[in-house]
Amino acid sequence: MTHKLAAYGGKKVREEPLDPHRYLQTRFGEEEKQAVSEVLDSGYLCRVFGDRAKAFEQEIAEYFGVAGAAAVSSGTAAIHCALAALDVGYGDEVITSPITDMGSVIPIVAQNAVPVFADVDPNTFNINAASIEKVLTERTKAIIAVHLAGQCCVMRPIMDLARERGVHVVEDCAQSYLSTCDGRTAGTIGDVGCFSLNDFKHITCGDGGFLTSDDRDLIYRAALFADKGYPRTGPVRNSLVMGLNYRITELQAAVASVQLRKLASIIERRREFARILNEMLSRIEGFNPPTVANGIVHSYWFYPFTIDSELLGVDAATFAREVTAEGIPVTYPYLGSPVYLFDSVRKMHIYGSEITYKEGLCPDAEKALASMMVLPCNESMTENDARDIAAALSKVCDYHLEKSNHDT
Predict the structure, then answer these.
(1) What fold is seen in the domain 30-261?
(2) pLDDT at position 303 over 90
(3) Residue 352 has pLDDT above 80, yes or no
(4) pLDDT > 70 in the chain, percent
(5) How far is Cα 244 from Cα 241, in angstroms, rounded to an integer?
(6) How buried is residue 156: exposed, middle or buried, by Cβ count under 10 Å (0-12/13-18/19+)?
């Protein structure tokens, strides 16, 4: 029989477990240190008095080829500023994905709007035009298209539907830097793109975020909202809109600026690692690599996968535990449930809304989260890491195939 699994006393594939966060120790270098030092030497850490945040916004706009950008304090803040700039307000409905972070939901509620969840494509785990259309109503003001794990939603049908119905489209690109759809880069397709600079994203300054858009007036309104409504022009202080304090700091902007210059290289290395991994894993019976939709180029924030549980005779939770025991960490579950089943969402009450959030609301999303597992995939990983990952997955799959065949 196949070698005994490490989970049951066998020898591990990898004695020193693969560190999924190894890249965090190597992502900052002398350039970031120098940038931080220059800000400290200037004496201005607040963006109101410095020039780093303004320069970073110009760099973003040039990098993504858009008319303007606004740097803010987080990805959540970016989405909130986008919704505010789009005049989303009381009673409006905003459609988004049930497989996302609360950062996609909190801004909707903060604007007194109603979160509406569209089901996902069971293969890509992203929402699509068909699922959006099923929940779109006369009260729909905006769609937040969450690009999950490094893969763009299929945007052309979503944009066609949105234009036909007069609905705004916000792209949540927190996990999908430089992912493309039909040759267009995530964050440049909808009305506005929103990005996160959180510690675990493709690039980071600890926390932070930014918006991109070809609508200069939208960026202006978003920037106003992020700075308590202050235009910061002229000698008299006057708040033009009721906003919040979502300012990015000069220190964050300095680090993010250096990171932005590294982004293309980071994505290239992640894609190359994923290519090697896909090639090795394609030969494993019972293993299902991530499905990439036609016209999409993935940027691999993480590597989602499923198994053929019926063929292997094992559930996802057990499989993840067994592979992890071999020294290859597998995350399961990715989320404990769709966000609409989180306690905070189920308890909230939106005045004027009769929408309730309960099990069965998005069956494909619920099924996906019950089966989806996650492998690490980042720029620090090597071909030897890929071999170990493939060896561990192959070992566990072969074990269950043999066991299943023996039992039958």
Answers:
(1) Aspartate Aminotransferase; domain 2 (3.40.640)
(2) yes
(3) no
(4) 98
(5) 10
(6) middle
